[in-house]
Fold this sequence. Notes:
With 139 residues, the protein is mainly alpha-helical. The protein has one domain (2-130). 66% of the residues lie in helices and 4% in strands. A hairpin with a 5-residue loop joins strand 1 (120-122) and strand 2. The chain is elongated, with a radius of gyration of 27 Å. The two termini are 40 Å apart. Residues 114-120 and 130-135 have low confidence and may be disordered.
Amino acid sequence: MIRAAALIGGHVFAAVALTIAVAVAVAVAVAVAVAVVGVAGVLAFSVSARTREFGVRLAIGSEPRHLLTRVLGEGAVIAGAGIAAGAVGGTALARFVASYIIEVRMPGQRRNVPWKRGFWQQSPAGRPCAVSHSRPGAV
């Protein structure tokens, strides 16, 4: 009976984990779509504001592919800056949040236990377990 309950609980956990993973994937897809539309809007505004400049450049002999390369280069710089800022901000936010949650660690980071060093030890079964240390001020 206990084994059947554990199997059912495992399936429920797997279903919840899958639902959360799908929800996160949808949120990421929406965020990427919004970012792409934003970059396209900035580039469209930039091109519309510089039509006279492009006309003058074409009139003095510049080739259209050079103008296209320049515009696409500007878009790549904007996208690269956004990716770099997102990576730095995401890593900083993840580390900040992980510092408040005991069992969450970033790759290469030690366990987060703010009140006692050595709080977590290995049990005889090889799993981490809490030893009988108390927090400062606890009775």
